[in-house]
Design goal:
about 325 residues; Rossmann fold; UDP-galactose 4-epimerase, domain 1; 2 domains; three-stranded parallel β-sheet
C-alpha cells in the first residue's frame, strides 16, 4: 500500500468517529477490571463487553454489563464476539506480565504476541480502533534511566519486555501500512486498592500497603534504593481513556507514549506509609525481580504525551498513600 493510500485511510479515522461499542480483553486483570468499570460509567453498561479467559470475575463485573469467555489466541471466537456485539473499539489488556513471563517465557510470547496479532488483524479487517498497551519493560540496561527519553534504546532483558517492544513496532506497522487507528502507552508500575496485581515486577508497591494494614510489616522483594516510575490507578485509567479520545490528527506518536506520574524508591514508599502508620516496619530481601527492576527507568520523559494530548497526572506519592490506606482499611474490614 503506497503512502497516498495510507493517507486516505488516516483521513477516514480523522473524521469524527465516536467510540460506541467497546470490547475489553483481560477485563478481570488489575487494570482491565477498573478500566471496564469506568468505560461502562462513561459509555453505558450495555456498550462495554468484558472478556476473560480463566480467572473468575467479580460479581460487580459480571452484573454490570455483558461478559464473555474467550482465549485471546482464539481468533475465530474473537471474530464471533466482535461481530455479535458490533464492536468498534478494543482495549486490549490481556497479557502475561514480567515476573510470570520469566517463569514461562514461551507462554508469554504466545499470549502477548499472538493475541496482539489477532486483535490487529481483526481491526484491519473491520476498521476498528485499538488500544494496545506497552510498558516501561520495553526499556533495558542500555536505556538512560533518568528521565528516559521518548525515543531511546529499546533492548529489554525479559520476554515480557521483548513482546512489548515487538508490540509497539507491530502496532505502528499496522497504523502506517493499513491505517489502523491503534494507540498505546508505556505503563509504569500501577498501584490500586481495588484489584491485586497479576505477576509484575512492581507488585511490591501494592502488596506493601496490604501488609502494612494487616500485619504492620512487609518484606520487600527489591532493595530499598530501587526507584521506578509509578502511577496510581485513577491516573492510569484517565490516561488510557484520554489517549483514545484524543483527535488522531494531534498525534505524532501512536503506540509508545511515555506516561509519568511519580517516581520513588522502595524506601521512600515505606516512609510514606510510616507517616500514617508509625509502627510500620519494612525489610528487604531482593529476589530475581531485582535484576528486572534494575533494567528499567527511574523516571520517564513524558513530554510527548503532555504536548500531543494534554496528559497531566493528578496524584503524587503522599496523596496516593493517603487514599490507598483509607480505602484499603474499608476493603479489608468488609
Amino acid at each position: 500500500m503506497n503512502e497516498n493510500v495510507r493517507t486516505d485511510r488516516m483521513g477516514d479515522y480523522m473524521s469524527d468517529r465516536k467510540i460506541e461499542k467497546i470490547l475489553v480483553t483481560g477485563s478481570v486483570g488489575q487494570i482491565g477490571s477498573e478500566l471496564t468499570e469506568e468505560l461502562r460509567n462513561r459509555y453505558g453498561s450495555d456498550n462495554v463487553v468484558a472478556m476473560g479467559r480463566r480467572t473468575k470475575p467479580s460479581e460487580e463485573l459480571l452484573n454490570s454489563g455483558p461478559f464473555v469467555w474467550c482465549d485471546i489466541t482464539d481468533r475465530d471466537k474473537l471474530n464471533i464476539i466482535v461481530d455479535e456485539y458490533e464492536v468498534d473499539t478494543i482495549f486490549h489488556m490481556a497479557a502475561i506480565l514480567s515476573a510470570v513471563g520469566e517463569k514461562n517465557p514461551q507462554l508469554a510470547y504466545r499470549v502477548n504476541m499472538n493475541g496482539l496479532y489477532n486483535i490487529l488483524e481483526i481491526a484491519r479487517e473491520r476498521e476498528l480502533r485499538i488500544f494496545g498497551p506497552s510498558s516501561i519493560a520495553a526499556f533495558g540496561p542500555e536505556t538512560p534511566r533518568d528521565n528516559t527519553p521518548q525515543e531511546t534504546v529499546l533492548r529489554p532483558r525479559t520476554m515480557y519486555g521483548v513482546t512489548k517492544v515487538a508490540g509497539e513496532l507491530l502496532c505502528d506497522y499496522y497504523f502506517n501500512r493499513f491505517g489502523v487507528d491503534v494507540r498505546g502507552l508505556r505503563y509504569p508500575g500501577i498501584i490500586s486498592y481495588k484489584t491485586l496485581p497479576g505477576g509484575g515486577t512492581t507488585d511490591y508497591a501494592v502488596a506493601i500497603y496490604y501488609e502494612a494494614i494487616k500485619h504492620g510489616r512487609y518484606t520487600c522483594f527489591v532493595g530499598p534504593e530501587t526507584m521506578l516510575p509509578m502511577m496510581y490507578m485513577p491516573d492510569c485509567i484517565k490516561a488510557t481513556i484520554d489517549i483514545m479520545e484524543a483527535p488522531l490528527e494531534n498525534l505524532v506518536h501512536h503506540s509508545d507514549f511515555n506516561v509519568g506520574a511519580m517516581s520513588f524508591s522502595a524506601r521512600e514508599l515505606a516512609a510514606s506509609i510510616k507517616e500514617f502508620i508509625p509502627e510500620f516496619e519494612c525489610s528487604y530481601e531482593p529476589d530475581f525481580r531485582q535484576a528486572i527492576a534494575d533494567s528499567w527507568p527511574k523516571s520517564v520523559d513524558d513530554s510527548a504525551a503532555r504536548n500531543e494530548w494534554g496528559w497531566v497526572p493528578q496524584y503524587d506519592l503522599p496523596a496516593m498513600t493517603e487514599d490507598m490506606l483509607y480505602n484499603l482499611r474499608i476493603k479489608l474490614a468488609e
